[in-house]
Design brief:
Layout (H helix, E strand, L loop, with lengths): L3 E5 L3 E6 L4 E8 L4 H17 L4 E4 L3 E4 L1 H13 L7 E6 L3 H6 L11 E5 L3
Parallel strand pairs: 3-4, 3-5, 4-6, 6-7
Antiparallel strand pairs: 1-2, 2-3
Helix pairs in contact: 1-2
Length: 120
């Protein structure tokens, strides 16, 4: 069964595809309010916990994230710390914040797999 949900803000889009067990976040994630913070955490945690298989978080086209956004990702993985599902993050080596910041998430949830995609 194909299921696709989307959350669109002016600067970013979050798409949840239950069919692919994947969440894709695109754009520039500038979180300014607690509501936005909670929205992001809830979408990812819900998608990951309802997934029947391992879960993919695709950040390849997320060009910018502010400190609140990184904190939200950290809180997301704290919420998923005790879940058995394996999580793979797709990232871009060409986006500086991804290359420098994503490995820190492994300190929260050690079994996160980060795959750096080379995009042209």
């Amino acid at each position: 069964m194909l299921s696709l949900q989307s959350l669109q803000q002016s600067e970013y889009t979050i798409q949840l595809s239950n069919f692919e067990n994947k969440i894709t976040i695109k754009g520039e994630l500038r979180i300014h309010t607690v509501n936005e913070y909670d929205e992001l955490i809830n979408v990812i945690v819900t998608g990951a916990t309802k997934s029947n298989n391992d879960f993919v978080l695709d950040l390849c086209n997320l060009s910018f994230i502010n400190s609140m956004g990184i904190a939200a990702l950290g809180m997301t993985f704290i919420n998923l710390k005790h879940h058995e599902k394996k999580i793979k993050i797709l990232a871009s080596k060409h986006i500086h914040w991804q290359y420098t910041s994503l490995n820190d998430l492994k300190q929260i949830k050690a079994d996160i797999d980060i795959e750096y995609i080379i995009q042209h």
